[in-house]
Amino acid sequence: MISIGVDIGGTSIKGASINEQGQIMARFSLPLIAQETGDQTIARLGRKILSFISEKKMQKKEILGLGIGCPGAINSEKGIVDYSNNLKWNDVPLQEILEKVTGLKVKVTNDANAAALGEACFGAGKEASSIILLTLGTGVGGGIIINGQVYQGNQGKGAELGHTVIEIDGRPCTCGRQGCLEAYASATALISDTKEAMKKHPDSLMWKLVNDDITKVNGKTPFDAKIKGDIYASEIINHYIKYLGEGILNFCNIFRPEAIILSGGIAQQGKDLLNPLIDYCEKRNYGFKKTPKVKITTAQLGYDAGVLGAASLFFHNQ
Amino acid sequence: MISIGVDIGGTSIKGASINEQGQIMARFSLPLIAQETGDQTIARLGRKILSFISEKKMQKKEILGLGIGCPGAINSEKGIVDYSNNLKWNDVPLQEILEKVTGLKVKVTNDANAAALGEACFGAGKEASSIILLTLGTGVGGGIIINGQVYQGNQGKGAELGHTVIEIDGRPCTCGRQGCLEAYASATALISDTKEAMKKHPDSLMWKLVNDDITKVNGKTPFDAKIKGDIYASEIINHYIKYLGEGILNFCNIFRPEAIILSGGIAQQGKDLLNPLIDYCEKRNYGFKKTPKVKITTAQLGYDAGVLGAASLFFHNQ
Question: In what helix (H) or strand (E) does residue A85 lie, and over which residues does it extend?
Answer without folding.
Answer: none
